[in-house]
Fold each of these.
Amino acid sequence: QLPIIYIITPTNNRVETQLADLTRMRNTLWLVPKIVWILIEDSTFKTPKITKFLKESQLSYVHLSEQTPDDLIIRSNEKTWSKPRGVLQRNKGIDWLRENSKDIDSNGVIFFADDDNTYDIRLFEEIRYTQKVSVWPVAFVGELMYERPICKNGKVTGWFRSWGDSRPFPIDMAGFAINLRLLLAHPSARFSNLVQRGMQESHLLSHLISVNELEPKADNCTKIFVWHTNTRKILRFGEKRLQQMNLKYDQ
Ligand code: UDP
Ligand code: MN
């Protein structure tokens, strides 16, 4: 009996690219057994577009929504990293797991997978048997080709990273997975819009574990199984123009 991987994905309505990102991710997840995709829309309601998308995917999924408050929405003249992203949405996913803890696989694993990253399907088999918290390299973060834990004899002994020396866990959101039982045992473990920039991962993990207990994956953290790719604004025109194109874009 394979443990279930609960994949928590916040998704923002980036007008042109959301469906492209989610399609790429869905195609990946089609190749992975025993997963539940917890998709949280950044919206006050579950949109028909994503409802239809999920239904047609035939994946095992949970559809939620949670809107980013106005003052935390990133404006087009602001840097994308100027404000936290996806925090309340990920918390909504965590809350769902807590609320449904009786009905879910307590041997399961949680992985926070943003909608625009690139995932090698071998990653999922690496993390499926996470005892507490597992870690691995993530490509394209911190202005490096990759960030990674440095490992010796199956323990994390240091970090290869370019910024944030004060981070207790200098690791990207896509660079760790948590055993579900461990998360459920710590009710205060969640993300927060109040922590310093770049500290989300450290904030959560500090509730759960210390560095010497981390479980290195991906061949002692020497292989890249996830890339922090980013969707650029591709079209210069908005939704209005898309409607003018006589295409059923919002399928
Ligand atoms: N996101 C969101 N609301 C926002 C901005 C982003 O739900 O206002 C989601 C987005 O869809 C993605 C995750 O949060 O799954 C991280 O956002 P993004 O990819 O923009 O951040 P970055 O990769 O630059 O850290
Ligand atoms: Mn991203």
Amino acid sequence: MRITLFDIQAMKRDGKRIAMLTAYDTPSAALAERAGIPILLVGDSLGMTVQGHDTTLPVTLDDMIRHAGAVVRGTGRAMIVADLPFLTYATESDAIHSARRMMQEAGVQALKLEGGASLAPIVRRLTELGVPVMGHLGLTPQAQHTLGLRVQARQAAAARRLMDDALALQDAGAFAIVLELVPAPLAATLAQRLQIPVIGIGAGAGCDGQVQVWHDILGLLPGKSPRHAKRFAEIGTAIEAALRDYAAEVESGAFPTAAQSAGMDPAELAHALN
Ligand code: KIV
Ligand code: NA
């Protein structure tokens, strides 16, 4: 049995903080599940982390379905949430079509959609149809060309709008909300006011949970991680060192040895040669 939205909401009621992490493929999803992470997000951040784009905007529904299916196949217990990508849920009928494909073809348990009060009717409809929806407010990267990439809702009017958006999503049936890059005191207030879990990224310690990007916390991308990310390991450096060793051993002839090779009866080889 997989973790459900009821388990996640019970964690908030019980005061247990919720750890969520992105995953994009089968083996990493399996590792995250073994580490006990209850929610894995197949984020459209895969546009940057695995596809080499600068933004999430080029990611397609087919891309998301392919990666989400891989994550589902690597897990049996974690709740798998997938982003619907840019402009695949702008109308109710698009949202239903995209949700059907993601749930049926990839087999995820829930979807994440970026947007506030104006998205609420779509959230309500999907929820009525049996699709659990996670909201996403604050910095919503699919809108980066209109919002920018900076901390959101620092001023009173925008903070009030964010609170209204969050309440509208909760009323529409969203089972949780991701809050990205908003001031910590505002996020903490929202987490207190909402019944549903508020999962922060760059939103401070007062949220009900945290979400991070796999590559950011494991040191897998060249250069600095974002400010909100802590590097829990330097896997990129470890990989590079291992690969240098591999290349050096191929070049020196130290790899492979008999241990990595198959032998053959010399008589069989001799027979083959005449
Ligand atoms: O795509 C993603 O990884 C996300 C998280 C950063 C919340 O949406
Ligand atoms: Na995303």
